UniProtKB/TrEMBL annotation:
<dbReference type="InterPro" id="IPR036291">
    <property type="entry name" value="NAD(P)-bd_dom_sf"/>
</dbReference>
<dbReference type="InterPro" id="IPR013149">
    <property type="entry name" value="ADH-like_C"/>
</dbReference>
<dbReference type="Pfam" id="PF08240">
    <property type="entry name" value="ADH_N"/>
</dbReference>
<keyword id="KW-0479">Metal-binding</keyword>
<dbReference type="Pfam" id="PF00107">
    <property type="entry name" value="ADH_zinc_N"/>
</dbReference>
<comment type="similarity">
    <text>Belongs to the zinc-containing alcohol dehydrogenase family.</text>
</comment>
<dbReference type="InterPro" id="IPR011032">
    <property type="entry name" value="GroES-like_sf"/>
</dbReference>
<keyword id="KW-0560">Oxidoreductase</keyword>
<dbReference type="GO" id="GO:0016491">
    <property type="term" value="F:oxidoreductase activity"/>
</dbReference>
<dbReference type="GO" id="GO:0008270">
    <property type="term" value="F:zinc ion binding"/>
</dbReference>
<dbReference type="InterPro" id="IPR020843">
    <property type="entry name" value="ER"/>
</dbReference>
<dbReference type="InterPro" id="IPR002328">
    <property type="entry name" value="ADH_Zn_CS"/>
</dbReference>
<keyword id="KW-0862">Zinc</keyword>
<protein>
    <submittedName>
        <fullName>IMP dehydrogenase</fullName>
    </submittedName>
</protein>
<dbReference type="InterPro" id="IPR013154">
    <property type="entry name" value="ADH-like_N"/>
</dbReference>
<feature type="domain" description="Enoyl reductase (ER)">
    <location>
        <begin position="7"/>
        <end position="337"/>
    </location>
</feature>
Amino acid sequence: MRGVIMHAPRDVRVEDRPDPVIEEPTDAIIRTVATCICGSDLWPYRGEDRVHDQPMGHEYVGVVEQVGEDVTHIKVGDFVVGSFFASDNTCPICVAGYQSRCVHAVPMGPLGTQAERVRIPLADGTLVATPGYPDEEIIPSLLAASDVLGTGWFAAVAAEAGPGKTVVVVGDGAVGLLGILAAKHLGAARIIAMSRHADRQALARRFGATDIVEERGEEGVAKIKELTDGLGAHSTIEAVGTQESMLQAIASTRPGGHVGFVGVSHGVSIPGRVLFPAEVHLMGGPAPVRQFLPELISLIWDREIDPGVVFDLTLPLERAAEGYQAMDERRATKVLLRP
Ligand SMILES: [Zn+2]
């Protein structure tokens, strides 16, 4: 089969890879219908994470081609969505709703979903089947549920976005934008997007942002305070993962408020002298997307949300390298790949 390999920073190629096979009786093999490039794939692409001959991709929707003998719920022919961590969905951590930290969690990245076929461990726990084969028009939205939508949703829930709340969103990548969609769906009264890119501001407004703040750092925080009677937001979504964005998120939140942080941390360290007086709740980490998948699939199936519009470039899998380049140069927000 064909699949993406990142040999080194900025060296992405589509090559022949061995077809996956059932290794454990709880595995399934899917034929990938759509996959995509994640903002987090840019960390190794830019040389900020180590990378050497690595299969890439952790987002996927597809059709089940084969199941192991212990798989009972998922059937051959099902159209399925799964998250970037395989999980059993039965251990105490999963039952509590934190499937990305399942005691048997398997990260999907090393298996590489930017490929024609993928082995899905713990298939019964990991995969959620859609009610049928989806219309072409909602496939991008179902794919978004696999990571960016699920992650933005978790961030909004972790930030306790809800009716009457003012929500600030730090980060205008796909996750931040879908955090806006989630906050809107959860009933937030006011949603302030921090963005300085015109195309992303437009999408932010489409998803429900009521205000845009272009300033960053201390100036950005001052602007948030100005818009919130000097108090700060009730709920802040942090969707970048840098020191600046994390401190900006904490400082934008009022005492007693909540920060939902989902940007993969790179060099973040929170000084006690900042954290202690802030008096905010911090909740975040790798989003337990699996917890939200049934609800998200149902909202997409019923055309109540359209997260798939974050994909602004679609390419055949064979042209994945162009997709990485477009995202790196910010010519694309999110790139969908079709095998
Ligand atoms: Zn588990």
